[in-house]
C-alpha cells in the first residue's frame, strides 16, 4: 500500500543560519526556566536539521555518502548545542559564546545555495525529546571510548546528544542508509568506509535513530555493515526511541539480532511526570493523577459503548493526556518540538478565535493545552472558573442534529481554512501524478488490475488538474468522531491543526480534497458544500478536481486502514478487526465510484 511520504522544505543555508542567530540572541534574554529550556531545544533541533541538510547536499553533489572535514564542520554546531543542552539539563549556567562563534564560522564556509530540510518525524509527531536520549546515554554507563553512529535524518542531532551524554572523545559519524524502505543498506564512500571499518574495532558502538518502525532496517543496515567487518554483536548498542521490537516487515535476521543486542531507551514517562508542573500556571494544580489517553484510550471518555469506537492506528496517534484540576479538565496534546510547532500553535489559536475549534489555553514545551469539553470535571467548572463547563457530545452520538446547519458550518470551516492557510511553499503536497500513482496502486492491491485500470483515464488530465489546484493546509481528518456538538448547538472541530503535515504522502492539497472528505465522511451534499466553501473562501472550486479527488481519497483511506491492520495484527487483535472493517467500507465505496464514474472531460 502507498500511504506514507514526506514533504521537505528547501531553503538557503544562510537564511537558516540567520534565523538561528536570532533565536540565539533571544535565548540570552530569557530567564532560567521552562521557556528558556524549550528555546534551547528548538535551537538544537533546527541546527541538527540544517546539519542533516548540508550533509545530504554534500552526498548528492559527490554521489557518495562520505566523511571528511566538511562533515565535521556541519556537525560542529549541533554538537556544541548538545553539550550546552546537557549542561543546562544539569543546571550548569554555561555561556553560549562558543555556540555563536561556531555559527559565525559556518556562515563563512563555502555553503550550497540551497538545502533540503526534512522535519524529523519524532520531534514533530511522536513526542521524541532529545533530553530522553541524553538520559539514556548517561544510564547506559558506556565508556567514553564508545563510537557513536547516527542515522540521518533525525539521528544527525540525536547522535550528538548521545555523544554529549557519554562524554565521548571523538565526534559522531552520520550515515544515510539507502534502498527500499524495508531493506535499507549502507553505501558509504571510500573515506567513510575506512572510518566505519575502524569503528568495527571499537570497544563499543552506539547506533542512534528513532524507531524501530515497520522493519527496523535502518538500525539493521548499520549493524549489518559493522558485523560484516568483524564487529562482535555484544559490542553493538542500539539507542532507539521506544522499547518495542521492529514491526512485521522486519527480516528474520534483523528481528533476531534486535533481541540480542544491547538497547538503551528512556521511557516518555520521565517527561510525562513533569507535564503537570509545566502547565500548572495555565491549569492550576492537579487534583487527580495525569491520565494517558493516547493510543485510542480517549475513546473510553468519548464513546461509553466500545461498539461505537472508531478504528484508529494506535501506534501513530499523538501523545495526549487528560489533566483534572480545580479549574476543570484539560487536554494536553503533543503538538511538536521546534519551529514548525510554533506555527501549529498559531494555527490552533486562529481556528479557535474564529470559533471553529476548542479554545487554546497555552503551549508548554511541545504540548498544546485546551479545555477538555466532552466530560465535566469533578468541580463542574471549565478552564474559565467563572463559567460552568460545557459537556459536548461527539457528532456520531448527537440526536436531532440540524443537518442543514452542519452542512453550512462545515462549508464555512473549510472555506476559512482555504482563505487563511495557503500552502507555505510549493512541494508541500503530493503532485497529481503521485496521487494517481497511489490511487492506482492501492486499488490494484485490493481489487485487482482490471478495476484499477479505470483510473488510467485521468493520465491525460494531470496537467489540467495541477493548473486548477490551489494548495492549502488542508484538514485531512473530517470523520464524524472529529466533531463535537455543544449543548447550545455550537459545532467544534477537534484535532484540526497539522494533518496536512503528517506522515502521509498527501500533504497540502486544494480545498477540494477536504470537500470530498467531508461529503463522504459526514454524508453531506458535495455540490452544496462546495458552494458554501466558495462563498467563504472567495475562490472557485474546480469540478474536475472534485471528481479526481474522490477515488484518490477513497484509495488513500483504504490503504491507510489496510496497512494499519497489517501493522497491528499481532499487537492489537481487537483494533485490527475495526481497521479491517473500515478498510472494507472504503474499498466498497471505491469500487462503486470507479464502476459508476462518468467519462472524464
Biggest β-sheet: strands ordered side by side in the sheet: 4-3-5-6-7
Q: Taking all residues together, what is the mean pLDDT?
A: 92
Radius of gyration: 25 Å
Low-pLDDT stretches: 376-388
**What fraction of the residues are assigned to beta strands by DSSP?**
5-15%
- Overall strand count: 15
Our count of helices gives 21
Structural class: alpha/beta
Q: Percent of residues in helical segments?
A: 40-55%
Largest sheet entry: 5 strands, parallel
What would you call the shape? globular
Structure description:
This protein is α/β, with parallel strands linked by helices. Helix content is 48%, strand content 9%. The protein is built from 21 helices and 15 strands. The strands form four sheets. Strands 4-3-5-6-7 form a five-stranded parallel sheet, with helices on both faces. A five-stranded antiparallel sheet has the order 8-9-10-12-11. Helix 3 packs antiparallel against helix 4 (97-107). The protein is globular and about 70 Å long. It starts with 8 loop residues before the first strand and ends in a 6-residue tail after the last helix. 49% of the residues are buried.
Strand-helix topology:
Layout lengths: L8 E3 L1 H17 L4 H29 L6 H21 L7 H11 L7 E3 L3 H5 L4 H11 L6 E5 L3 H12 L6 E3 L14 H10 L5 E4 L8 H11 L8 E4 L12 H9 L1 E2 L5 H15 L7 E2 L6 H4 L17 E6 L2 E7 L4 H15 L8 E3 L2 E5 L21 E2 L8 H18 L11 H16 L1 H4 L9 H7 L14 E3 L5 E3 L18 H11 L3 H12 L5 H26 L4 H23 L6
Parallel strand pairs: 3-4, 3-5, 5-6, 6-7
Antiparallel strand pairs: 1-2, 8-9, 9-10, 10-12, 11-12, 13-14, 14-15
Helix pairs in contact: 1-2, 1-4, 2-3, 3-4, 3-7, 6-7, 14-19, 15-20, 18-19, 18-20, 20-21
